[in-house]
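In the current project phase, we have settled on a layout for protein records. A sample record is reproduced below.
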Amino acid sequence: MRIAQIAPLYEAVPPRLYGGTERVVAHLTDALVAEGHEVTLFASGDAETRAELVASRKQALRLDPAPLKSDLASHLSLLHEVRRRANEFDVLHFHIDMLHFPLFESIAQRTLTTLHGRLDIADLSDTYRRWRQYPLVSISNAQRLPLLDANWYATVQHGMNATHYRFTPAVRDGYLAFLGRISPEKRPDRAITIARRSGIPVRIAAKVDQVDRDYFEREIRPLLHSSLVEYVGEIGDDQKSEFLGNARALLFPVDWPEPFGLVMIEAMACGTPVIAWRCGSVPEVVDDGVTGFIVDNLAQAIEAVKMAGHLPRDRIRAEFERRFTAEAMAQRYAQLYWQLAGHRRAESLQVTAA
């Protein structure tokens, strides 16, 4: 099948440091190529991919040192090229929210749109109601809740290339890990509180976006002076296996409707249990008592820290391999691509018969 993957331009594919959507697109694209599909990736020029790359700008936006740049202009150029070449593909798979909707209405039946973010945002319901012809994919069932009447086609959980993450079979002592982004909804303050109350060090590997800079300086930096807290900063893929694999547990103390939580399956790939708050997708990702613990408060989280070492790390890795590999994700998406193609053929035959 001839497939176009259309990625956002904010990060490289895969990201050099922090990044979720572009990392998923990278692993999905390579897995589809390995399955024998003809895949073209529309992304920034610093992408590393097994597919044919079509670059609309040289470098991803976030790490581009240019002082002024337009994400809107960049994405419009990307969409212009996708539209120009649209007839070359059996399916166009978009990962850029709804930005393409006005431009691809006439061929919406040849598109699939995966939504990667939160959906409890004003104006979204009107937008997805206006353009109901686009088939949508959610990354968890919980993600759908604010937009239950949208044109949902399927739920496909994320997957990662298993060879990118090194399994660590045993950890002596270890630390608690927090990986991702410093922001109020990610609750790094909870992670620090858990470390202090349990007496186990926590290492925080996270980026700070400009929008969260005040929160970091006001709420988090004063908490970093504890001897139990180490702020590592933002890390890349080449550091994740060591960081996550040597941890006693990953802390995922979120306080928002998490759409998926990629870091949870990255930890599982290393054999590391996850201690996560019962928010959003968490109950769909974490198998409570097997790959980690789902908690509702600090007391439960501290108790889970004590129990984390009793979970067999090889079982955690096995569950990752069963549920969250890039191959499993690619096979599920390939099924959807063929279904779309089958529906189009059936509709064409009905029109011909009429």
